[in-house]
Automatic annotation (TrEMBL), chains A, B:
Keywords: Aminotransferase, Pyridoxal phosphate, Transferase. Its cofactor is pyridoxal 5'-phosphate. GO terms for molecular function: L-alanine:2-oxoglutarate aminotransferase activity; pyridoxal phosphate binding. Homodimer. Pathway: Amino-acid degradation; L-alanine degradation via transaminase pathway; pyruvate from L-alanine: step 1/1. Residues 83-465 form the Aminotransferase class I/classII large domain. This is alanine transaminase. It comes from the Eukaryota. It catalyses: L-alanine + 2-oxoglutarate = pyruvate + L-glutamate. SUPFAM superfamilies: PLP-dependent transferases. One of its GO terms (biological process) is L-alanine catabolic process. Belongs to the class-I pyridoxal-phosphate-dependent aminotransferase family. Alanine aminotransferase subfamily. Its EC number is 2.6.1.2.
């Protein structure tokens, strides 16, 4: 039977290093296709990462026009660009030293853009004040998060610093924590209840963690990656109360805040909820909230722009944070400008507004349609269950493998979902990620699929997945 | 006397944090000018950092046209852009997933651009082979350097990891070393001989260092910042031989490699010299060489693009390096593209070549003229001596303060050159950096001036410096 073709061996021989086996194999297959060595499919479909443009989504025109004009100011005289594009580019250039985006900026970002971001936050949170002094722009939210970890993790203590992180969570964050010398304290999200975060789970994890390390921070990803869930206001309140009781610093990764689907679903920021919990709590719980230009509908991952807002930091700690943020080189000016455009997009009445809102809406519609199709296809397939997608860019369905499939994987010393993903890639060209990379309950298995891709690509992907999955389940039943 | 106006007090009251006192004061003064509170000068002249565009230099047109077209591909249909610009933009876009520079790339950079960089290196070094597999692109050479430090510095050893660094060296590097937990082992450059690097000095420093830490790496900045010197081929050979004997990893910061002035001056890369020293040495000495789009004549600091080339790394170490480089998010795509354009600029015959070469040459001419004027003015001033500028963006003249000036500073518990710079800024609006930030021999004092600025700005700056300096020397004589 074809599944016995030993991919595990292929993996071991070709990918000695073990770094991202799947991605390397996908790249190899692409070369094989180009060289005519593959006939069963003509293209690798990549639903492995949260990258809108890779998934065929066109960039937002307003964003690209402003950026092009900033690069090449001769375009400011060009009649084909809308007036608001040219005005915005002029304002932004006037904030750059020497009128050039090629100049260094302040290492925490251009003052005007920090102000723009703080105003966006105030609007988002219905008036809760935000100060540009607490905004630090870096080349992506992950870079800002790494600096915060650097601040929180004390490498010289005899007792390791602990950070509570959800299971599942995205792999690069776990790697970064390990690299910085933190002890990872996992807490499980409740899949059966749509990946809900239960405070009892946090408490249990903390108690266990305290036996071996010094827990100082609680990392939250809301909306969730890879889980596609979003926390309710009540759930956030409970988490904040817990953090207050246990004196934990909250790291709130809120990069998917603008990607929320369904009428009954609303994003509440940790900062907003915190601000309404009474002064004992609202003025004491330390919080860092992250956002990015990569994960909204702009999807400008390659520009590298993100920020952190710091709330309630002890003045001495804040001073040290400022120092850490300022010893690093300035964030890419282009990423900063993209943040400005994200925080202050065209408004009704602006020349660019109709196109802008149409483009943004069509991306949202596309994701909703994709999600509907995914649920439809999954509901017909044996051995797959999937929590509804409420927000973000991913679904994380559970695969209920037959015992024979598990045994087959065990024999090859690989995780069953990894082996599933490798075979799926090998046989259909569809590249998705295995749950074992994100962490999951013992003996449960998942895959992660990117949903924000063109509908025809999604349809193609679902057909490949369906064909493969049916054959797989039959083979091992 | 006016110098007794107590700036030290002003500093202590207003800049409690101590982070970059001068820059903050410069920003305050700019606000004071805008609010009409200053009448003695109408503008702060900033010669504090190595930023071409801030200094009024226009970006290279070819670079900006390609970048604008990459951002907004509608421009590919625009007749006003030269053909080679459009061709290059098309090629680069075809290397981006989904044809968008908004997509993530490989975390060490786009393969085609790494190839382009390696070909540039091979040409630069007269045929010494370079492989794209050894090139890692990051958001600036400093980011790449930080990752290499992370690789070399073992935080858990009982004995601190030591890194040899020149005195003077730029302050942010020293801070970064401290932050990463390295022990700094200073070696002095010989100012009297044009900031020559003597191997005996390295040997002395290493011996001292070995008493308290475990020295593993030797950091070289060639051409030098802030010193403006360039190493001879012979000097580089001596350093490499020393590193071979003492088993030190060479970190060669070569970001000013394209900024070399004077007919008798040539840049030799550490890699080229190493390759010609016989196989015992050429195949064993471990080397990392850094370069950037910020420091050449493109001066695109704000785009954030740089790379490191690794040479002779032990396979296990290389594997770990690969891992460190790949766990971080991808470098800004725009910075990568700028690297491609730097490594492969327009050639004779290309439509963009005439403008490109004229722009590059005019920047070089401007720097040479500025350097001439600086030497002229300094030679007339009492108490200043300055080594000739051979390369890079800075001069680092020595200030011979009268004893009364030293006493005056001591009374205020400040470094004399810091106090000099603060008064220079306060009274003339000229912002330069004090030698104490870079390290200098005991009882010697310097300032660092950026030279790659428009000639009228440089003339204005020299007049301000001259007036102030004469008054200062008179006051304290």
């Amino acid at each position: 039977m074809s599944f016995m073709k030993d991919i595990s061996l292929l993996v071991k021989n070709n990918f000695l290093s073990g770094i991202d086996v799947l991605s390397r194999r996908a790249a190899q297959i692409t070369v094989e296709i180009q060289q005519g060595e593959r006939t069963n499919y003509n293209k690798v479909l990549d639903l492995s990462s949260g990258d809108l443009h890779r998934g065929g989504i066109k960039p937002i025109t307003f964003v690209r026009q402003v950026l092009a004009a900033c690069f090449y100011p001769a375009l400011l005289e060009d009649d084909s660009l809308p007036l608001d594009v040219k005005q915005r580019a002029k304002i932004l250039l006037s904030e750059c030293d020497g009128g050039s985006i090629g100049s260094y900026t302040d290492s925490s970002g251009i003052a005007k853009i920090k102000l723009c971001v703080s105003q966006y936050i105030t609007r988002r949170d219905g008036g809760v004040p935000s100060s540009p002094d607490n905004i630090f722009i870096k080349s992506g939210s992950q870079t800002a998060l790494m600096i915060m970890l650097k601040l929180l993790i004390r490498s010289k203590d005899s007792c390791q610093t602990g950070v509570l992180i959800p299971v599942p969570t995205y792999a690069s964050f776990t790697l970064a924590l390990e690299e910085q010398g933190a002890a990872i304290i996992p807490y499980h999200l409740c899949e059966e209840q749509g990946w809900t975060l239960h405070v009892e789970e946090l408490r249990k994890a903390l108690l266990t963690g305290r036996k071996t390390c010094n827990p100082v921070a609680l990392y939250i990803c809301n909306p969730g990656n890879p889980t596609g869930h979003i926390q309710s206001r009540k759930s956030i309140e409970e988490v904040i109360r817990f953090a207050a009781e246990e004196r934990l610093f909250i790291l709130a990764d809120e990069v998917y805040q603008s990607c929320v689907y369904g009428d009954d679903t609303e994003f509440y920021s940790y900062k907003k909820v915190l601000s309404e919990m009474g002064s004992t709590i609202s003025s004491t719980v330390e919080l860092a909230s992250f956002n990015s230009v990569s994960k909204g509908f702009m999807g400008e991952c390659g520009l590298r722009g993100g920020y952190v807002e710091l709330v309630n930091l002890d003045p001495a700690v804040r001073e040290y944070a400022q120092r850490l943020f300022s010893t690093r080189s300035c964030p890419p000016v282009i990423g900063q400008i993209a943040l400005d455009l994200m925080a202050d997009p065209p408004k009704p009445g602006d020349p660019s507004f109709p196109t802008f809102s149409e483009e943004a809406q069509s991306i949202k519609n596309m994701i909703c349609k994709n999600t509907g199709r995914i649920q439809e296809v999954f509901s017909e397939l044996p051995g797959i269950s999937c929590q509804p997608l409420k927000a973000g860019f991913f679904v994380f369905p559970c695969l209920h493998f037959p015992p024979k499939a598990i045994k087959w994987a065990k024999k090859r010393q690989m995780e069953p979902d990894m082996l599933y993903c490798l075979h799926l890639l090998e046989e259909t060209g569809l590249h998705v990620r295995p749950g074992c990379e994100y962490g999951q309950r013992k003996d449960s298995h998942h895959i992660r699929l990117f949903v924000a891709t063109q509908q025809d690509i999604m349809e193609d992907a679902l057909q490949r997945l369906k064909t493969f999955h049916m054959r797989f389940m039959k083979e091992f039943s």
